[in-house]
Structures are given as C-alpha cells and as structure tokens.
Design goal:
Elements (H helix, E strand, L loop, with lengths): L10 E7 L3 H9 L7 E7 L6 E5 L2 E5 L1 H4 L2 E5 L2 H6 L18 H6 L26 E7 L5 H9 L16 E5 L2 E8 L11 H13 L3 E7 L3 H13 L4 E6 L1 H6 L3 E2 L1 H8 L3 E3 L8 H13 L18 H20 L3 H10 L2 H7 L3 H18 L3 H20 E2 L5 H13 L5 H45 L4 H19 L2 H17 L1 H15 L7 H7 L3 H7 L6 H10 L9 H11 L4 H25 L11 E3 L7 H35 L14 H6 L3 H4 L7 H9 L6 H9 L4 H4 L2 H13 L4 H11 L1 H28 L4
Parallel strand pairs: 6-8, 6-9, 9-10, 10-12
Antiparallel strand pairs: 1-2, 1-5, 2-3, 3-4, 4-14, 7-8, 11-13
Helix pairs in contact: 7-15, 9-15, 11-12, 11-14, 17-18, 17-19, 18-26, 18-30, 19-26, 21-22, 22-33, 24-32, 26-30, 29-30, 32-34, 33-34
The structure holds guanosine-5'-diphosphate (GDP) and magnesium ion.
Length: about 800
C-alpha cells in the first residue's frame, strides 16, 4: 500500500520513498526515510493535502506525493517492539539520572576546565585583533531570530512561520564588539533544495565563518540534529545551542548534555532564547571555539553498525579517493564525500573530479546500494538518522506529549477542521479588518488628525501674526502641513494592520492557512506556500516579494511575485481612507472590503492567465512543517510595530515631504516662473495635461489627479498628500463619486511604488520589473475604464 491509502489516525512504516531529484532528497532530509513510522493526522478541509506526524513533528504532503511513498501497516506485534515517537524511553534505556531537572542542570565542560572540548590554549589562536565572524544556522522556526535579537540586541522580525527570515542579517554581539554574527535563513539540510539552502551552504563554505552557532529546537530534536550532523561534516568550529529547553523540561524531558557533547565532539549549551537563559554561556563557548579554532572532535560520524557498515565504508572510500580534489577546491573532505555520493552536481563540479574517479564513485555507490538494500540517497539519510537516534537514545529523555502540542492539536481541531477552517479564516480576516479600520485604527486616527489640525492652525496663526513672506507661509502651511499631515494620520491604521499580521504570523496560523488553502491555490497554478507572501503583501510588497525566497520552485516564486502588486498594501490605505472620507463616509467599510476583495479576484484572474501563458506546468509539491501554535512574544510584536512606525515616519518625512514640496512649488508657479494664483496655469497643470487624453476615458483627466498618481509612484501615500495640496477646496467638492471610484480602483492596481519595483528587480531582474510597471498600469487602466463605463451606463456622473 502507499501512504495515500492510510486511514486517519493510522500509523504505518515507510518501506520505500519514490520520486526523484531534489524533492525526493528533501523528503529524505525531512526524515521521510524507509523504516520511519508515520501517522496520518488529518486531511485538509478540501481533502488535500494531508497532515502527517513523524519524528515528533507535523508535516504536510499532497496526496499525489503521498502515493509515491510505499508503506506497510504496523501489525500489533511489530508495534509493540517499536517505541512510539515521543514516548519516554523504557526503564532500562534511560539509566541513571532520570530527573530531567537534574539533567538539565548537570555540569558540562566549562572553558578550559579540562573539558574535552576546550583544550584551552592548545589550539592555534587567531591573531589578536581579528574580527570574529560567526554564523547562526538552524532549522526554520527553531528560534534563530529570537536568539539573534538576544545576541545583538537588534530587533529583527520574528515569526512562527517556517521561513520568515529571508534575508541575511548581520549584527555585533553585545559585549563583544569584535564579534559579528550573521543570521542565515532557516534550512533543514545542506542539500540544494531551495535557494535558501544554497545561500546558507555557500556562506559556510565560502565566507568561512570562524564559528557556527547551530541552534537546535530540542522539542523536535531528531530532525534538527540532521542539520547539525551535516554541519559537523563541514569540519568547522561549531557550538550546538539546544533551544527551547524551557518547553522540554516543563514537559518532563531532559538532555544529558555531557553525553551529547561526548558523542558529537562539540560544545553543547542548553538555552532558552525566549526566556534569555544560557545565552551568556553560549557566547562564551562560541567565542572560545572561534578564537582557538576548535573544530569538531569527532571526525568519523558514521554509525558503523548501520546496514553492516555499508555507508560507513562508502564514505571513507570516497574520502580517500577525492582527498586531493577537496583540498584543492578548499572544500571540507567529509562533506564533499557525502555530497559526491548523493550526486550533488554543484559540489561535484567544484571538486573537478576526473572521469575515472567519477566512475569509481559510481561503483562504490552501486556496491553500497546493493549491500544496504536502499538507494544511495536513502541509505545516506538513513545512516545519518540512525546515528542521531543512537545519540538521542543515550542522551535525551523524551518529554511526554508537550502541553504546547496538545494545545495546538486542540486549536487545530477548529482552525483546520473540515467544516470550520474556512469559515474561521473568513471570520478572522473580517474581524481584523473591522478592528483595524473601524475600531482601533479609526479611533487613533481621529486623535492624530485632531492633533495635526490644531498644530496647523497654531502655526498658520503664528505665521500670519509674524507677517511672514506669503510664499514661505504658503509653503509651510499649504505644502508641509497639508501634505505630510494628511499622510501622518494614517500611521495608527498601518501600525494596527501590521500588529494583526504579525500576530497571525508569529502564532503559527499562517502556516495553517497555507495548509488548507493549498488545494484552492493549486487550481490557479500556485501552491499553499504562496499564501504567505500574499498575506504579507497586505502589509507591504517589499517584504512580500522577499518572502518568496523560501519557495522551492522558481516558477511558483516568479508567479507569486507578479501577483503581490494586486494586494492592497498598507500604503494604499491612506488613498482609500482619503477618498472614502470625502465621498463615501457612510459605506466606507464596505468599500474597503470591496477593494481588498477586488485585488484578490484580480490576482486570481492574473494567476490563471499567467498559468496558461508564461508559466505553464505544475506547481511543485507542498512539503511544509506545521509548527506548534505559540503565543507571540509581546516584545517581538512591539518591536515590529515600532519598526513599521519608524519606517512609515521616515518615508513621511523624506519621500513624501519632498514630493509635497515639489508639488506645492510646481503648482504655485506658472511656466514663466511667476507666482500664480490660479493653479490651473501652473507648470504642474501644463505638464499633467500631456497625460490627460489617456486618462480622460477613466474619468481621471483632472490634472490634480494625474499629478497625484504620478507622485504615487514614489510612495503610494503621496497620492493623498498631493491631492490634499492641490484640492484647496477639499476633495469632496472636486470629485464626483464616479471619479472617486475610478481613482480608487486605479490606485489599487497601477504600478507598485519604487521600493517594491526595486525589490522585484532584485529578485527577478530588470526586464520583469519593467514588465510589472507597464502591465500593472495597463490592467489598472482597463479595470478603471470598465468601472467608469458601467458607472456611466448606470447613470452616474
Ligand atoms: P526562526 O524562524 O528560526 O527565526 O524562529 P523565531 O525566532 O522566529 O522563533 C519561532 C517561534 O519560537 C517564536 O514564536 C518564538 O517566540 C518561539 N521561541 C523562540 N525561542 C524560544 C524558547 O527558547 N522557548 C520557547 N518556548 N519558545 C521560543
Ligand atoms: Mg527568523
């Protein structure tokens, strides 16, 4: 039978993993290897994909991929012999100290105390004054960003979605000004499955950090140690940070740190990044191994008992064979050998092996496959996991099912339940928009408007009293205060929006949305993973475009990037708000939702179009971890809100301020550079006139609107500041409802701002970026035209 035929709740054992290439390697790296027990937890509400549990964590898989995995049901007899994942070890195995608290507290070699892993001073210390480079490497969602923030005091965004960290971030360690640490993207393995994995791997290989801090989520230790194993193969100084120790011990688990150090041959430090425990010790060890260049003690990471030592012999044979090549290429030997065995083309090329050597490797591989009964990729992964299971068997006391996990399962019964998932999703989205636009955001917005209004009057009066030059007076009040002030009042709404988005992300809910939306998204040629950038796109397109980097398929990635401009990003909100306040104050909320909805519908249509033209082909498989729900850290959320507020204020006082001043200036002077009272004669009006014939069919032929749209290219909020300056009599008097609707629709769709275009250019290149600008404008024109046309047919003006 295959995994697809399993029943809900049934546990089966994997016999054979089908498929090919990078995806199959990814399965293997995630622990989907022959011999593993796997339980079918549930199907997504639409029947696909399925949620599985293995090695103590949850994974999603599509039915068609599950059909490639052959399994056998566990009969009662076998089941009795095999320890269920997560169950505590039988009495005899967990000999000695079984009090987890005591084990957690147990001493382990300190610095230079004769500890085996810190032969103080015997190493070869770095020259004095060297800047120590460190890298933070770990699985997605293992707490890297939390730890990074602890180490550097910086406030990087922390999320509970696998793969939130998508860009490389550097920082200096607090108290160690000569130590620079880089937060690398979260990865599961050193195989080139996603572009993230290649980035991280190349960083370690080429930038040669002096030390790697490998962060391991102890509540999910086996899968996390798989990456540790591969780091050790790379023969660089590593210190293992066992994170989430608080959760493990609270649930009755524990780690014999001394034993684990002995088996791994590197320092191991139990920490809790969230609770700020063990961080100092971790830094001490990391600095020490970096300074004394202490590489892993354990050079032979083979499980010699595994399959009669077949893989062990394979590895060592290849090591001997390629020793000179690895040295010449500057690659770690053991790492090169296992990658050569796995058939990793990138590494094989770098090694520059000759034909004979390649053939010899092929023979060795064939022999290993024959002896182990598995193909080489499965055999290597299996051997690694076998080493890890032995290691954990003798050094880890598994916790009982954790409170966090139980809670997650209970929450999931509703939030991913067959009949409840989608209604709850819609409800949550509605609630968020209601709270953002109507309750919290709107209330605070009122306060700020009041403040800005009062200040404007005060300044206005003061300037009049002081008899200030008319031009300067106009510039200050009409340009700066009107322009920037009108945008400032949107700060609360935007910050509230990011607050909710970050809660969704941080709690682990977005991963669930990806899970149950996968089937729908596939219909339009995307995968569940695309939902993350889309939702982030409601905040801002720039991080949304960057968030696509975790997507393993280039095709999905490109398509998702091209769809993000359709999302109503937070900078478009002021435009909606401005127009709604002026013309539709009574049905504002409906219009907000209508615009969000229109954006989504257009994105779907665009996806269908892309799918049947430029991006033919199938979406790639959907393999994703479902993390436990976690309460978002208050500090992280506050940090994020502050970051976004800062970002917004920065823009308000740079781009938007400059645009406001330019607009004010150009509308005050006519073509002969004389101050003009009638703005209709101004330079601006004349220049905008050029665009008028194109935009008139949309009802947007007014030069004020044209100028506003052009400034909106710099930052969408500028549309508002510009209109505020140019419509001296107020927008309500100047626009008809039909014009207003047309403007809203056009603003939603037309070209993203420069920052977003720059991000797209970085990810896809200049051609695509140019395409996005032209294409979005064309679509915007078309849709606004349709809206305008229907409006006129219905008798609007
Ligand atoms: P990253 O994806 O590896 O960067 O992981 P994050 O730093 O974003 O953390 C993922 C989740 O784990 C967040 O919800 C954190 O609050 C939580 N977390 C991080 N460290 C700890 C810890 O030591 N203990 C507990 N209980 N939770 C943690
Ligand atoms: Mg992160």
């Amino acid at each position: 039978m295959t995994l697809r035929d399993a029943d809900i709740g049934q546990t089966v054992r994997i016999e054979k993993v089908g498929g090919s290439g990078a995806l199959r390697q990814h399965f293997l790296d995630m622990g989907v290897i022959p011999g593993t027990e796997i339980t079918l937890v549930q199907y997504a509400p639409m029947g696909d994909p399925m949620e599985l549990r293995l090695h103590g964590y949850e994974l999603t898989l599509r039915l068609e991929d599950a059909a490639q995995i052959e399994v056998c049901p566990l009969s009662g007899k076998i089941q009795a012999q095999v320890r269920k994942q997560g169950e505590p070890l039988p009495e005899k195995e967990s000999s000695g100290d079984t009090n987890p608290k005591a084990m957690f507290a147990s001493e382990h070699p300190g610095l230079g105390e004769g500890g085996k892993f810190h032969p103080k001073g015997s190493g070869d210390p770095l020259p004095k004054g060297t800047t120590i480079k460190m890298a933070l490497v770990g699985n997605q969602n293992s707490g890297k960003t939390t730890l990074f923030n602890r180490l550097t005091g910086s406030n990087q965004h922390v999320g509970n979605f696998p793969g939130v960290t998508v860009d490389r971030k550097d920082g200096t360690i607090i108290g160690h000004p000569d130590c620079v640490i880089t937060d690398l993207p979260g990865i599961y393995s050193m195989s080139p499955y996603s572009s993230e994995e290649i980035v991280s791997r190349n960083f370690v290989l080429d930038e040669k950090p002096h030390a790697v801090i490998n962060i391991v989520d102890v509540t999910n230790i086996e899968r996390n140690l798989y990456l540790t194993y591969q780091l050790l193969e790379m023969d660089i100084p590593v210190v293992v940070a066992l994170n989430m120790m608080d959760e493990l011990t609270a649930n009755g688990g524990g780690v014999d740190v001394n034993e684990m150090e002995k088996l791994l041959g590197v320092p191991v430090v139990p920490i809790s990044a969230a609770k700020n425990e063990g961080i100092e010790e971790l830094v001490e060890h990391a600095v020490h191994i970096a300074y004394y260049r202490e590489k892993p003690e354990n050079r032979d990471l083979c499980d010699k008992q595994h399959k009669n030592g077949a893989v062990h012999r394979c590895m060592h044979s290849i090591e001997h064979l390629i020793e000179d090549h690895a040295e010449k290429a500057g690659l770690p030997l053991r790492f090169s050998a296992s990658k050569a065995a796995e058939g990793d083309q990138l590494i094989i090329e770098r090694l520059g092996l000759e034909k004979n050597e390649l053939e010899t490797i092929e023979h060795i591989v064939k022999q290993t496959e024959a002896e182990s009964g598995l193909d080489i990729n499965a055999a290597v992964a299996d051997m690694r996991f076998s080493f890890i299971f032995n290691l954990c068997g003798s050094s880890v006391i598994k916790p009982r099912e954790s409170r966090e996990h139980l809670r997650s399962r209970r929450i999931d019964r509703i939030l991913t339940g067959k009949y409840t998932a989608i209604p709850f999703f819609i409800l949550i989205m509605l609630l968020i928009s209601f709270l953002t636009f109507n309750v919290i955001g709107a209330f605070l917005q009122g306060l700020i408007e009041l403040g800005v209004g009062t200040l404007t009057t005060l300044v206005d009066d003061a300037l009049t009293a002081a008899n200030v030059n008319e031009v300067i007076h106009g510039l200050i009040v009409g340009g700066i205060f009107e322009g920037v002030g009108s945008v400032l009042s949107f700060l609360p709404i935007i910050v509230t929006m990011f607050f909710f988005l970050s809660i969704l992300e941080d709690s682990g809910y977005i991963a669930r949305v990806a899970f149950f939306m996968d089937k729908l998204l596939r219909k339009i040629g995307l995968s569940g993973r695309s939902i993350v950038p889309m939702l982030i796109g409601f905040g801002c397109s720039v991080p949304a475009v960057m968030a696509t980097r975790t997507m393993p398929s280039e095709r999905d990635r490109k398509m998702t990037i091209l769809l993000t401009p359709f999302m109503s990003c937070s900078a478009k909100m002021p435009i909606y708000g401005f127009v709604i306040d002026a013309l539709f104050p009574d049905i504002g909320w409906l219009i907000y939702i209508g615009l969000y909805f229109l954006g989504i519908v257009l994105a779907i249509l665009a996806a269908l179009l892309y799918k049947s033209t430029a991006f033919k082909g199938e979406a790639v498989p959907f393999v994703m971890e479902l993390p436990n729900y976690r309460l978002p850290g208050v500090k992280n959320v506050l940090h994020l809100m502050w970051d976004k507020a800062k970002d917004f204020l920065q823009r308000a006082f740079t781009v938007i301020l400059i645009a406001s001043l330019a607009v004010w200036f150009l509308q005050s002077f006519d073509l002969s550079m004389k101050l003009t009272a009638d703005t209709g004669n101004s330079i601006l009006a004349a220049a905008a006139g050029i665009l008028a014939p194109i935009m008139a069919p949309l009802g947007l032929g007014d030069w004020q609107i044209l100028v506003a749209l052009v400034t909106g290219f710099m930052a969408k909020e500028s549309v508002v500041s510009t209109l505020e300056i140019l419509y001296t009599g107020g927008a309500a008097a100047a626009m008809t409802s039909l014009t207003a609707l047309s403007l809203l629709v056009f603003s939603l769709i037309y070209t993203p701002c420069v920052a977003a275009i720059a991000a797209i250019k970085r990810e896809l290149g200049g051609k695509w970026a140019a395409f996005v600008v032209v294409w979005q404008c064309a679509v915007a024109w078309l849709i606004a035209f349709i809206v305008h046309f229907i409006g006129i047919m219905l008798g609007g003006v």
